[in-house]
Amino acid sequence: MAEAMGFYTDTTVCIGCKACEVACKEWNQLPAANGGVRELSGNSYDNTRRLDGIHWRHVKFVEQFSADRRDGRWLMMSDVCKHCVQAGCLEVCPTGAIIRTEFDTVVIQSNVCNGCRDCIAACPFGVIEINPASGTAQKCTLCYDRLQHGLEPACAKACPTDSIQFGPIRELRERAQARMQQLHARGEARAYLYGADPTFLGGLNAFYLLVDKPEAYGLPSHPKLPTRNLAFSALWSTLGAVVLGLFGLFSLRTRGDVVEPDETSSGTVDERERHV
Amino acid sequence: MSDTFFTTAPHWRWLIVLYFFIGGIAGGSFFLAALLNLFGRPQDRPIVRTGYYVALLGAVVSGILLTVDLERPERFWHMLIQSERGLPMFKYWSPMSVGAWGLLLFSGLALLATLGALHEAGQMRWRLLRPLHAGVLGNLIAVLGGLCGFFLAGYTGALLSVTNRPLWADTTWLGLLFLLSGASTAAALLMLLGLLRGARTRETVYWLARMDRGTLILELLALIILTVSLGPVLRTWMNVWGLVLLVGVVLAGILIPLSLEWRPRLLGRLSLPAGAVLVLLGGFLLRVVVILSSEGV
A197, B105, B106, B244: which has the fewest C-beta neighbours closer than 10 Å? Predict the structure, then answer.
């Protein structure tokens, strides 16, 4: 396997130009939303709004203003599939359409996916959606086709501020640590790395430098694998089946002959059975 | 806030609601029919056969619903066969993968049991079918089918729990709840079908009513445990869905049928069928609430 590759996104230098979104759309030939008819969000300058089957990159505009709007700040974050080291989507996919590549990235094979949508519910970040053009679940491939030819992903190539950096995960982590320390030294004590270590999901191959809590960016603070619930779900169901089976056996063994009830009978089913 | 609120809904809507409901009835019917087949009396045979017919019909409808719900229905077989290698596709840790195989196996067993039942009823006279309802093979089909029925009724809840969606992934009790609901709705449907057959099946119908009563009590307990287990996520149900759950599922689908069981004088001869219809309604609404309330987040 080649070295693990990924993205390090420094949100403090993102200017919200959305060049990454455009480059992603262009390279991956993703269709326009709403059939190309312009549709404004109405509550933000961000009209993409979220990641889905035809938006594999999304620059979030987090608008934090006081009630009188005297004080405020914009947080920009170019969001993308996290290419989790332990990926929930890959875990549950029943067709084997979702694979881990030689670059340790997670890719959905469109020719295998049958659109069951289990991966959509399993992704802890809400990244995956159906692409209506293909009828399959789709998301960022980390430009697998470009990687195979030694090129960097289109979004990282297009980013004018190097907010999106691409490279070997090991190098990216070192770079991110240095940047975080630099910010701390300059007084931005809120800066921290999200997903750079294996604290959750074994680590994210697309990790972030953030300056607010994850929820402010629409990220879960402790994303988990969907299979965490499997053992107990199976256990309770099995116990229920055993209890039900035993109850069925018991009730069959103890039932008596039926006494035909008359119209005015007030007896329960049990009372309508005459035990022999 | 639970981390599950940062996810996207998979758009599992009415087709899946119907599948969960019908699949539960199919699984429950086979289980009840198998119990009666193995431990019942000769007079239970008509309901045994009916249970197998319901199981097969439910399995076929389930397969159709699941296939139609896919974005690419022509690729339904990718659930079972690796499309690029031709090898079996199976992940024991993925409820959907196990469920696809479970439904296939269940359908096969329901078909065998139905063929045996048709032979027993004199509808098919091919002698080779006789072992399907008598002897070791018949018993084996009943045992395996009953186990698969349990699985089919319960795995749908586990499937929801093995996601990252609000409500579904915030509890591990959905599998048990759906399993019990599958059994209670199946008992209710078989009771109704038994009542249509008249006095011949009366004894079996009373046993089904007793079975239904016990299952409904267990279902109510499971629902209470599930509700408590949700913790702060319970707010997902603090709206019209909570009302439907309370009125449609708990009151109409569990408490009133139980009352009709205990006090049949309330509706006279209509008590059993009315209770059974309400149980079916409650079972359906349970799936509606569980699935659509999370879809709406």
Answer: A197
